[in-house]
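Q: Could you fold this chain for me?
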Amino acid sequence: MRLFVALHLSNDTVQEIEEWRKPLIQKHPSLRWIQREQMHITLRFLGDRRADQVIREIENLSLEELFPIEYTLSRIGQFGNSPSVLWLSGKFSSNLFSIVRLLDSIPDEEGKTGGSRSFTPHVTLARIRRGVSCPNIAFNRQIAGVSNAIHLMTSNLTPNGPVYTNLFSIR
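A: Sure. Below is the predicted structure, expressed as structure tokens.
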């Protein structure tokens, strides 16, 4: 079971992102736009792990003490030399980085912890297909929100894209 831990985005945040990107979806159909139900900020990808074990490990971290997490999404960017992901990021309360450091102690499918990785909190907006150039898109907004939850999610890859299921939440 492919597992990851994600920061929940408020409904207001998702709605504001949707309003902003609605004309972009029409204008740039060659991008694979993420469904609104799938918007989140990935905090730790764990890969193929047993959910019951990961739930116990997360429960032992006492993460609920670190909520709420405040954020302001204010910039757009791309990952990769030949960009493969279009994303939003911005400013986040320091507790988010404390949560990430704690989650980094949980081993992934290869038994590795996340201590050596660099972390850029972001909301994936679209995936860029190989051979498709990413348009220059401006983001002249500030979307502020508060998150009161993280979720342990499973990702099932299908021909129509990933399907995410929430297995466990910390609020």
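A (continued): Strands lie at 2-7, 32-33, 41-48, 69-79, 85-92, 123-127, 143-147, 150-158, 161-170.
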